[in-house]
Amino acid sequence: MYDRVENIKRDITQSSFTTEELINLNAFVVKQIKVQRALAAQKMKRQLFVGSTVNFEDNSGVRVTGTIKKVMRKFAKVETSGAIWRVPLSALSKGAA
Question: Are 80 and 69 in contact (CB under 8 A)?
């Protein structure tokens, strides 16, 4: 995968793309990222219910384990020791039961 990304970067750098073409390319990439995150969130939502143990990374990059208190459309409220977090579903992974 790394080679593919590097090839794309090289092609963009060496080619004479117009600003408009680069903006369109950026919009396409951003849209694809949003679609992938939405699919991951939908998949995770089907696996979650109140009381599930989950893991996520906090703002410092530290792995946190908690329990689902509420599942919403795009987020879940997760209780950890001492705090309740509002976490995007796509950022959650199932934890040990």
Answer: no
Give the DSSP H/E element, type plus range, for residue 22: helix 19-47
Kindly report, residue by residue over 39-62, the tens digit of the pLDDT.
888 888 888 899 999 999 988 999
If one counts every other C-beta atom within 10 angstroms of the C-beta of residue 74, the result is: 13
* Paired residues of 28 in beta bridges: none
Q: Mind listing the pLDDT tens digit for each residue in 61-93?
A: 999 999 999 999 889 999 998 899 999 988 898
β-pairing verdict for 75-80 and 83-88:
antiparallel
Q: Which amino acid is at 59?
A: N
pTM surpassing 0.90?
no
| Residue 89 three-state SS | helix
